[in-house]
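Subject: for your reference before the review

Hello V.,

The reviewers asked for a structural picture of the protein, and I figured it would be easier to keep everything in one thread rather than splitting it across files. Below is the amino acid sequence we used in the manuscript, unchanged from the supplementary table.
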Amino acid sequence: MISSISWVPKGASKPVPSAADPPSKEEIEEIKKAALLGKGFDVESEEGNEDDDEDMTAVDESTEQPDEIEQAIGAANALGKVSTKKTSGGSSSFSDIADGLDELNMDDYDDEDDDIDIFGSGLGDTFYPSNELDPYLKDKGDDEDSEELEDIMIKADDAVLVSTRNEDDMSYLDVWIIEDPDGDSNAYVHHDILIPAFPLCTAWLDCPIKGGEKGNFIAVGSMEPSIEIWDLDIVDEVQPSLILGGYSEKKKKKKGKKTEKSIKYKKDSHTGAVLSLAWNKGFRNILASASADKLVKVWDVATGDCKLTMNHHTDKVQAVAWNHHEHEVLLSGSFDHTVVMRDGRKPTHTGFKWLVGADVESLAWDPHDQHSFVVSLENGTILGFDIRTAASNSSTELKPTFTIHAHDKAVCAISYNPLVPNLIATGSEDKMVKLWDLSNNQPSCLASQNRKAGAVFALSFLEDCPFLLALGGSKGKLELWDTLSDATISKRYGKYARQDKAPAST
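And here is what came back from the structure prediction:
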């Protein structure tokens, strides 16, 4: 499945990404320890711990490892270039080996054919003291180098996005290149990054956590309480550039018929899965996170510290977003059926609260209007709100400006079009993707399609090519929809496309 999508702004990626340094033995051991820690093993005593539902027994090197241990260290072994092959029967039969030798006909190996001239003749067989002096090999090498460089190069006109994918109990960040995003788009995975836990959300950020003026990073929230930040300009990277929070110790020990759990977290860490992330474009070192532990946190990625923890929700916090215009204003939505707005300039203020009728799935600020936002719910409903109607009295019931019964199942994703005011896309577990016009708070559905992505968990308009919509879901395939190919969209918004492509006046 694809669980999240984040666009990378044009020009943010290096034209030629760097190759990662091979991991040292110490780094590989640290990766293995982290994997074992996530599985609940005491890495200090090197003793396996037992779960209530599973009976873990010790095994020697000659037997196959238990599934939990194998899954925990499998990724680390792969990073250490460890390769293991298993046969269905455990070993090859002698008859198979004999058949293979007969086919090679090794007995007649030394018998040479008299008709073959071993040494050859002619200019084509001229001897060169080294490969560097051989023009044929030299030219071939140059061609291969140029082809490899072209394969890895990210061109100025390419669109780049990052999606999170889970497949066969393995999780990845896929870095996609979309060639000719304004025309016949061709999408392929430029490189991927193996990540240790099931991913749930991402946020792109350019804060230079490694020095310099800017960077190209992706923050990843997962089923673990930590937030990993990966450098997208490095290929074959094995460790994140920064980890915010997470476990410091995790043990499970069985005493008699009871299992005792001992879990310790790093300072200011979340204690549940990280469900949503939001980068602050106004304050580039600031990242907000929402978690199943009912908390919202604000992090300084430059220092790796948590600057603020907010506990204004009473259930899992599913979504969080910064206002595009007032960068200190933060919005969060929860399974407690509320949406809360807090202002960082007034940390003692409890904020403003809106009641909604179901679990919050997603929310988004309007990039064209600083006062408006939309919320999608588990029951298929989309609500619009205007913050100017808010009052400090949290008991006051604040009415939405509009309500849409948009889908038959949960609406997992919302995206505002960055170019066209009042145009949004919604994606749902009912497998449908819909485009809406919200003008005058009287929503109308403009287009509806099943894009064959399965249940839709993530979608986003491309900022640099605003009518291209990327989406992913339960089928694990990235889908691209050129929304201008729809007659209604083209007729109504074609003028915006022409303005976007017009050259700037001098």
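For the response letter, the relevant points are probably these. Helices lie at 25-38, 67-79, 94-104, 135-152, 487-501. The radius of gyration is 28 Å.

Happy to draft the paragraph if you're swamped.

O.
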